[in-house]
Specification:
about 850 residues, six-stranded parallel beta sheet, 26 strands, binds adenosine-5'-diphosphate, binds magnesium ion, nucleotide-binding, RNA helicase
């Protein structure tokens, strides 16, 4: 053991200067005995004195030392709730909030005093004295009562995880604490920042955050040596590798629990199922492993919540949105000679996409155990799953004694890394990977990707093996990979997130002065300013002359509810009233994914499609009239729904994609995004009760018009006007070239239509539109625009007000959102206001 400290069962005065404020708690003797083994008990005096003497204290201690379960009890006993105020504890994870509140209530023998509150549920009452909650819940409370008058202490737990919410909470609290110090009515507020023994300098050495550097208390804990073993090579399929390693440990190594780290619920269930098959236990009743068919963990939360919400709703209640199924693909499918194109052979990435699509068939672990080099039989395993959404009684089984003759084996996501401590673990098997949220900087859409974790996280995982005795950690990757590919620490989430989105979120929370906000790790200031400007032109913010601050508008508030980039959030917010939501969801999903339509040459398959063939296919997708005017996004819309139609009717999307030059992997991604967004929309706007209908009919003419307006509303920062070719240019070649040019935004030089844009391909028969919005400008040999949609200039005063200089005697256009009701107005007929409006001059 590194620390020779013997726990002092009864510190002298337990950090309370006046023991008369002390409240005694009558714990069960067994609980008391176990508590006394926790390293943090020996530090109670020091911790409580520090909290007494300082407004802010940082407490760092090895996972399992007792921070989360014991510190709230210390505070309660010391009388911090005597004034009727609460002890608040925030957790970045919902499960931690729930299970820890249960545990603390149990340990204190006062279950009614300890409650939890997470986004959709909670059990707080009059009697609550200690309240566990997610960081998001406390932020919302702050928006209502900035001084947090209900609380005498706030504990920010797991601060090392550096979730954006935790960071913003700490920033806010650094201001609330001094406010409360002077607040004679409500008394002081104590702040305790708790973290695992990872980097805490960002909190203590940031002069913007705390005026006086808070003391850092390190809790020494008995940690035994862990030997780390690396693989010689790094396997791709870490789930199979984990299975093999666990079997080998179980067969060959002395007793001691095994803890396996993988990245998601599905992998956990897959492994547990297989291990139970291989080493069956008679005691373990065949409990159900919930499976969610390839969904990410966060998706599952939403899915579960939705399911609950739907159950609550009356049965038989009709969806207000008419389902738009129908053989859309029939009349509109491109009529191309199907034999003309060769199928593109599957490459690795596409094979992967297939696996996503059909998890059952491709399930590696269903393979014969012998082919994996695994033997069955022998000592039974007590194999338990652990992930954040497992219900709490199943979760609690990791703390129960293991039945006679069994070896414990827990398969977990990174939840067992720092927030839960499992007793009796001697072997850790670590795949080294984590599932992380990625925010596409361009689109703001969140995706989940499996990547290498950090060195700090890997060492934290290894440490789980050394709690009772020296242990071993088997890393399913090579030491080279660890050395070269693992970052030292995980980056704080705030640096990975686009700031447009963050600024909007903060304003929605009531934090108006974003530029001066004391971030523990600040994003770039210039980025914050640019973000404010863009949000202003989107109509999410408005400049308040009195306060000289950019305030959030009702539109901005509704936008902030959608987890996508603000421009897309605006499109979704505007679609609410017109039953356009399913189309907008498809559009947003499609615009988010790169290269949906194959460009040539394609990888090694240059001969599969030539330029002409790609152009021809695109032209066929284009359509006529209003469909054509919706431009490149319409092609995406048609492609998605036609592919889904094929997938549904013939079950073969890949084949269809190959025939029509669509990227299959992109289609799979779009399908996932559509599901995710449909779920989110249902959470934000439960009354529209949207069903995900993969096959939809085409929008009619009126709907196409509305969709164009919606695209404009989201892309107000990307408006372009076709260049008039000056008469003094006479060279026909030069003239022809300039006919493809647009003047865009604040770019001085003309920007050219991309050769793949449908308006370019059709320009012989249809004149390219005068006014457009576009998705992006990119540079090759010259500047090009991609993703064009035609717009009507009379829409601009309505949707792109900030771009227009109104000429007198122009009246103010009809408001496009109603400030009183906070509802977004969008006219049904596709026309706005009196036709007689003078055309605005645009400041482009
Ligand atoms: P820390 O927050 O420092 O990581 P905790 O307070 O979470 O530590 O855990 C302290 C101890 O309490 C650990 O040994 C852990 O195994 C135990 N523990 C936590 N929750 C439970 C529970 N529900 N049942 C039994 N033991 C638990
Ligand atoms: Mg903890």
């Amino acid at each position: 053991p590194k620390s020779g400290k013997i726990p002092r069962t009864l510190p002298i005065n337990r950090g309370v200067p006046n023991p008369s404020t002390f409240i005694s708690v009558h714990r069960h003797p067994e609980v008391q005995t176990n508590r006394e083994k926790l390293p943090i008990l020996a530090e109670e005096q020091i911790i409580m004195e520090a909290i007494h003497d300082h407004p802010v204290v940082v407490l760092a201690g090895e996972t399992g030392s007792g921070k989360t379960t014991q510190v709230p009890q210390f505070l309660y006993e010391a009388g911090y709730t005597k004034s009727g105020k609460l002890i608040g504890v925030t957790e970045p994870r919902r499960v931690a909030a729930m299970s820890m509140s249960q545990r603390v209530g149990f340990e204190m023998n006062l279950p009614d005093l300890v409650s939890y509150q997470i986004r959709f549920e909670g059990n707080t009452s009059e009697q609550t004295r200690i309240k566990f909650m997610t960081d998001g819940v406390l932020l919302r409370e702050m928006a209502k009562d900035f001084r947090l008058r209900k609380y005498s202490v706030i504990i920010i737990d797991e601060a090392h995880e550096r979730s954006v919410f935790t960071d913003i909470l700490i920033g806010n609290l650094s201001r609330i604490v001094p406010l409360r110090a002077k607040d004679t009515e409500n008394g002081p507020l104590k702040l305790i920042v708790m973290s695992a023994t990872l980097r805490v300098e960002d909190f203590t050495e940031n002069s913007k955050l705390f005026k006086t550097v808070p003391p850092v208390i390190k809790v020494e804990s008995r940690q035994f040596e862990t030997t780390c073993h690396f693989q010689r090579t790094t396997p791709d399929d870490y789930v199979s590798a984990a299975l093999k390693k666990a079997c080998k440990i179980h067969r060959e190594l002395p007793e001691g629990g095994i803890l396996i780290f993988v990245t998601g619920q599905q992998e956990v269930n897959q492994l547990v199922r297989k291990l139970r098959d291989l080493y069956p236990s008679k005691n373990l009743e065949k409990d159900q492993l919930d499976d969610f068919n390839g969904l990410d963990e966060e998706d599952e939360t939403i899915e579960k919540t939705l399911r609950k919400a739907t159950l609550k709703r009356k049965k038989g209640q009709q969806s207000k949105v008419p389902t738009r199924s129908g053989p859309m693909a029939k009349g509109v499918l491109p009529r191309v000679d199907l034999n003309q194109y060769r199928a593109i052979p599957l490459d690795d990435t596409e094979a992967d996409a297939m696996r996503d699509d059909q998890p059952e068939e491709e399930d590696v672990l269903e393979a014969d155990p012998e082919s994996l080099g695994v033997t069955t039989g022998g000592q039974p395993l007590w194999c338990l799953p652990l992930y954040s959404l497992l219900n709490s009684d199943k979760q609690a089984r990791i703390f129960e004694p293991v039945p006679e003759g069994h070896r414990l084996c827990v398969v977990s996501t990174n939840i067992a890394e720092t927030s839960l401590t499992i007793p009796g673990i001697k072997y850790v098997v670590d795949c080294g990977k984590v599932k992380t949220k990625f925010y596409d900087k361009l689109t703001g859409v969140t995706t989940y990707q499996v990547t290498w974790g950090s060195k700090a996280a890997a060492n934290q995982r290894a440490g789980r093996a050394g709690r009772v005795a020296p242990g071993h950690c088997y890393r399913l990757f090579s030491s080279e990979v660890f050395k070269n590919d693992f970052p030292l620490h995980a980056q704080p989430e705030i640096l990975k997130r686009p700031v447009d989105d963050l600024v909007l979120q903060m304003k929605a929370m009531g934090i108006m002065n974003v530029i001066n906000f004391p971030f523990p790790t600040p994003p770039e200031m210039s980025q914050l300013k640019v973000a404010e400007r863009r949000l202003l032109s989107l109509g999410a913010l408005r400049f308040d002359k009195a306060s000289k601050i950019h305030q959030i508008t009702p539109l901005g508030k509704s936008m902030s509810a959608f987890p996508v980039a603000p421009c897309f959030a605006k499109m979704l917010a505007l679609s609410e009233q017109q039953n356009l939501m399913p189309y907008t969801i498809s559009l947003v999903s499609a615009l988010t994914v790169q290269e949906v339509l194959l460009e040539t040459p394609v990888g090694n398959h240059e001969d599969s499609f030539n330029q002409d063939e790609v152009r021809k296919i695109r032209k066929i997708w284009a359509g006529k009239g209003n469909h054509l005017l919706l431009g490149d996004p319409m092609i995406l819309l048609k492609a998605i729904h036609a592919a889904e139609y094929e997938a549904g009717s013939r079950g073969n999307m890949l084949d269809f994609c190959n025939r029509y030059a669509l990227r299959h992997k992109a289609m799979i991604e779009i399908r996932k995004l559509r599901r995710q967004l449909t779920n989110e929309v249902n959470l934000v706007l439960p009354h529209i009760n949207l069903a995900l209908d993969p096959k939809m009919s085409l929008p009619d003419d009126n709907e196409s018009n509305l969709l164009r307006q919606i695209v404009l509303a989201g892309m107000v920062n990307q408006v372009g006007r076709r260049l008039e070719v000056p008469p003094n240019i006479t060279d026909p070649k030069e003239r022809a070239k300039l006919e493809n040019a647009y003047q865009c935004g604040n770019l001085a030089d003309p920007v050219f239509m991309h050769g793949r844009s449908i308006f370019f391909l059709k320009k012989k028969t249809v004149k390219p539109p005068e006014w457009i919005v576009y998705q992006e400008v990119f540079e090759t040999d010259r500047m090009h625009i991609r993703g064009m949609t035609a717009i009507e200039p009379e829409w601009l005063p309505v949707f792109a007000k900030t771009l227009c200089n109104f000429l007198p005697p122009c009246q103010e256009p009809e408001p496009w959102y109603d400030i009183e009701s906070g509802r977004v107005m969008c006219k049904i007929n596709g026309t706005f206001g009196p036709q007689a409006w003078p055309l605005p001059t645009l400041t482009l």
